[in-house]
Automatic annotation (TrEMBL):
SUPFAM superfamilies found in the cross-reference section: DNA/RNA polymerases, DNase I-like
Protein name: Reverse transcriptase domain-containing protein
Organism: Patella caerulea
Gene3D superfamilies, A to Z: Endonuclease/exonuclease/phosphatase
Signal peptide: none
Domain of life of the native organism: Eukaryota
Domain Reverse transcriptase: from-to ranges: 483-762
Classification via Pfam families: RVT_1
Amino acid sequence: MLVKNSLQKYTKQILNDGTYEEMVWLHINTTTFGLKKDIVVGCIYTPPKDSIFYQNKDFVCNLSAVESALISIQLLYENVDIVLMGDMNARTRLDLDYVKFDKPDHIPGLESFYEIFAEQYVEIDVPRKNSDRIINPFGKHLLEMCWENNLVILNVRKPSDSRGNFTYVTSSGASTIDYILVSNSLFKSITDFCVLTPDISKHFPISCTLQICLETYTDKVHNATTRYKWKGDFADKFDAFINTDDFIDKLEYISDNLDLTTIDNTVLDLNKLLQSIGDKSNMKTVSTSSTVSRPQPPWFDSNLRSLKHERCNFLNTFRITNSQRDLERYLDAKHSFKDEYKLKEELFKKSLIEKLCDERDSSVFWSNIKTHFNTNKAPAVNISIGDWYDHFKTLLNPTVDTSDVNFDNFVQQYVTEHESNHEQIVGDPGYAELNREISEAEIIHAIGNLKAGKAPGEDLIPPEFYKRAVSQLLPLLHKLYNCILSCGTIPKNWSKSIIHPLHKKGDTDIPNNYRGISLIDISCKILCIIINERLVKWSDENSLLVEEQAGFRRGYSTIDNIFTLNAIVQKYLSKPKGGVLYCAFIDFSTAYDCISRSKLFYVLLKRGLNGRIYNLLCNIYKSVQSCVRANGTLSDYFDCLSGVKQGCVLSPWLFGIFINELALVTKTESGSGIFINSSIDDVFLLLFADDLSLLSDTPGGLQNKLDILQKYCSKWNMKVNIEKSKIVVFKNGGVLSKIEKWHYQSNPIEVVNSYKYLGIVFSSRLKWNVCCKTLSMQASKALNVIKLCISKLGSRNANIAFKLFDSMVSPILFYGAEVWGTETIPDIEQVQTKFCKWILCTGLKTTNALARAECGRYELYANYVCKPIKYFFKLMLMDRSRLPKLCYEMLYNQDLNGRINWCSRIRNILFRYGFGHVWINQGVVNVNEFLFRFKQRVRDVGLQEWHEFTSNSPRCMFYSKIKSGIYRESYLVNDLSHKLRFALANFKCSTHLLEIEEGRRTKIPRENRVCKICNLNQIGDEIHFMLKCPILNDIRNNFLPRWLIASPNECNLISLFTSNDPVLIRNLSIYISKGMEIRNEILKY
């Protein structure tokens, strides 16, 4: 690698200890060039398949070593971008190198994982092209490396290589095997890529251009606000203060002075009182500034601090005196600090592993994960506070393109006339329940629903204050909330919110790539929770929301809509002669932010909402002001004239009731739809919040629905994003006809072969291979984070590794398995298998079944097949008014008539595992007990198949003797080095180079596979290596137990390999490692 003289001072060669062959790594300090991160450049060469390079290697592709190097780089530098370049002998066709990692909102339990995945949300919109239409095994490996490490291929994605030129040309053909790969976050800084023309070699040179910016700007003003940071350590102090007579007296005084005219002062006085308690409790205030000093590691205690101070003093003294005595003192202090630091680090990591393994509280588990493993530092964002202000002010005050002036005037007049309607409808049956006084029980329930750790609003008071002091605050809050409900006036401070920009995707320097979360005072949030509970109950009791809307409703989920769409598609595709279903997936532009509030309140009135609750909602939105908090400062406040509040608990229900009008008008004006069951109307669409899919079984019917949508959007000020809206024609093959074209406002809508709906990819032929491939690619990204976490611990402890896997990766892999999880999916299984081999420190050549057995892992099928079975039981218990239930009945009847669908597969699974009576009875008495039995039965069958495989496979002859089942080996949780674990695991799994295995691969007769390093003329198998080969006698006497040397037979050898004694296992591993080294040295000559 050549570096300009002028750039040498910014560069440093790393990983140059000979560990990584055929690659050179260079760290570049780029802060001088205005880039956000430093860059590590790797020039790599991957020898072709079957090269002599791979002899005596534990891998068959040098890209495996590159992946190991990437992990090492992540440990050296917490936040760098990667550039890889070179001849990789990988042909990648047009296959995906990049997969969008969806924010896991739709996957329960993964909300806390978002922060760890912050960098996974960079979108690469430039599609790949490639003149080379062939893919080879190295190419597949390269693509997987890209998914797991957030790398993208530059070839073809930049102007000078728009056609995807070949990089290697000979008389026998041409191919693309030379690449430049860069981190997702660096992609936008690469301005060009080019395959150059000099033909001095069969390989054409390739180059890329990196744009640097020598001038950067940051906001100079840092009006950093603070808030009270709740920690469990403060609980006792806080409790002591809130139980004092002084605190109770002040609460009573505030309450006594509360009436309809003093609401604002009451809220201010309550805030001051709670803030004073926070101050007295010495709660740490945390700056919201983006400037954060680098903290010491958690094991850096007072003793280490003292030793470090002592070391510095001795160093300063030596620099003054230059005496030998002071030098020795300094060196002694330095060694003492270093030894103590290493000891404290090891003890801390050991304790952390035990803590994580034993932790049963998911919230504490995730807190520890984020605290110790979150390496995604917030990137420097070059967006000024003024730009943030302009962006959100424009977004929340959109220019309305009114095409129906008469309707707008009618709405305004209608809402104005009904502003004080609550006095006229006291006799309404719904009035009493909706508008009754707020009870203390409702307040307690609402405070209980507050999530700890959430950011407060302008008052800076965290939710923990209210949760901890609920009994003391209850009388005052009860009186306060009822005063507010009675007069309909909210405190002025409650009209203000702080917008926190949350990065969604793409370039971090573009405001449009952020979603604003409104932070409101917790005292306001409590009241909103109470009101929301009432509104949800009222709308459910009056069936205000259509059944097709599954978003943000109790008992509904994304899986319900996924199952429903799957069932409707199967209805058509399972027809004997095939059928066609047309589906338009519609994407709305900033739907929540663009709602006209006058039209929202018109809908509320039209649907029967009235009285004090209605007036309270009007006043909440009457004056909405926001400011933006970013770059350590707050912007000025501005008015927000449209949209619902992001982050407010009322917003999902308000949006749902608003967009419900679209469903109603579509049902009224569309004519015929999709017939499901005679007990319900035809289905015309599916909704999950603002995710809309329009359905029809004719091209004209779908166009009609698009026309209705256009009229609706024009009337109600909604906007459709044409570029992101797509149409899928579901059918069993064939090309589109001339009439299968659709438009929206004269703009054509693209027809695609697949579409990701609510996180699941639906293909036009309803095949799940693309879906599962996408899930596995997304899970691979998560897997790379886990590998980094484990590497930071310094030990690949299998217990914590698979706990992380089950917590972080499995939910991503299994998402949507309710519809696709009825059969074994290789792409899904591959993710766990590769992880098992990584834990074992073995190469990809290790037999999959053996790698899983060593780690004590069954096939993932045993887990995800339970999800469709569990959903089957959910459907059995579901009310017949629910759309998924009716779709199930439709599929059930079709299955009876011989049509293959989801029900057919559920039936086959239950009969296969001996539970046919469950299908016949359509349910069980105890679902949880059955699911436990079912999963165990699947595992039992898997264990039987595993025994059959290991007993009959020539490669498993030794393993079948030393392994009796699928269970985790003790050496995977003990402190065994990478080198020793590699030696032991490879030997046990027969991924070694003994003659018995080499001969099997090269098809040498078994009797001719004799040991090459001794003259006993015996078969060079595992038993010969362990017990008989005379060349290894010395190390055998040093490391193997005396009882084995005294009686060297197969039975005793099996006892050694099945032992859980850590000393025996360690010595066994050392023997194998040293024995293999001796063999390799002899075989060199």
